[in-house]
Amino acid sequence: DGKFTVTLIEGDGIGPEISQSVKDIFAAANVPIKWEAVDVTPRLKDGRTVIPEEAIDSVTRNYVALKGPLATPVGKGHVSLNLTLRRTFNLFANVRPCKSIAGYKTPYDNVDTVLIRENTEGEYSGIEHVVVDGVVQSIKLITREASERVLRFAFQHADAVGKRKVRAVHKATIMKMSDGLFLNTARDVAKEFPHIEFDAELLDNTCLKIVTDPIPYNDKVLVMPNLYGDILSDMCAGLIGGLGLTPSGNIGDECSIFEAVHGSAPDIAGKGLANPTALLLSSIMMLQHMGLNEFADRIQNAIFAVLAEGKTITGDLGGKAKTSEYAEAVMKKL
Ligand code: IPM
Ligand code: MN
């Protein structure tokens, strides 16, 4: 029928409500996508968290998935499902853009940062152990292979989004070996992209400068190891109004998963109060990734128009609209 099939992981808490907004708006915009909803409730197999086979098959078959927030089950043996998904599909680059939203006032105007986070290793490798009682070791694993892969992606992404500079963010002054390897690899990869300016900056300095004045970061793609990217991407989100407004994409060679970075907000789940903007913007990144740019532009313009008007916005943004009212306002602007 000429439609793309996309895996939908609705997620927990507010996940189903915000997913519904995406489905409604996509249907209203006639986006040629069929959703294949899957359950990713984890199973424990030999003491490890595993994703149900059907969910894995679906993402593998469709190459592309959209994902709502997933709560991690509490209990021994369970590792974050979010991380398990990234690792299962080898989604090595996490793309996190933050762009100021017209009409939503923050202390900063015209922010337009793009952060690429290494997504498979670093402190997130999950290698830790008790040495003796009261002493633990967590391994920060850095490999040239994973570094090279995400760095190359960052340069290619700079080209794709029209940024002229790539900056590696690191702490090689202290983490001499691990960040040193990342930084040296960055310098090597930079030679493959002579038309893109490359430099490096210490993470703490980046934090200081970006909250003082984010504008000098608008012409750069920032690329960094996993944990730094986790932290700095929330900081960037803070510049434009928080995680309710920022999309993200986990990119791999075989498939990609686009997701909202915020949590499942159990306190407001089921009440129709959630803001679906982050998941919607993630679905727009997904459309761009699939080459469906016309649909992406149309939906994005409609969202920005509703936010700029500021009349039909959700409680987190200071409005009174329900999730469905906001989605309907977006559909009217299509
Ligand atoms: C994120 C989240 C995750 C992370 C959590 C939920 C495991 O904070 O996507 O940034 O730390 O990567
Ligand atoms: Mn995070």
From TrEMBL:
Write down the EC number: 1.1.1.41
Q: Which UniProt keywords apply?
A: Magnesium, Metal-binding, NAD, Oxidoreductase, Transit peptide
**An example Gene Ontology biological process:** tricarboxylic acid cycle
Reactions mediated catalytically: D-threo-isocitrate + NAD(+) = 2-oxoglutarate + CO2 + NADH
Q: Which SMART domains has this protein been placed in?
A: Iso_dh
Where the record annotates domain Isopropylmalate dehydrogenase-like, the positions are: 5-330
The family database entries (PROSITE patterns) matched by this protein are listed as: IDH_IMDH
Return the InterPro entries for the record: IsoCit/isopropylmalate_DH_CS, Isocitrate_DH_NAD, IsoPropMal-DH-like_dom
Q: Which cofactor does it need?
A: Mg(2+); Mn(2+)
Q: Which GO terms describe its cellular component?
A: mitochondrion
Query: So which domain of life are we looking at?
Result: Eukaryota
Q: What is this protein called?
A: Isocitrate dehydrogenase [NAD] subunit 2, mitochondrial
Q: What is the lineage of its organism?
A: Eukaryota, Fungi, Dikarya, Ascomycota, Pezizomycotina
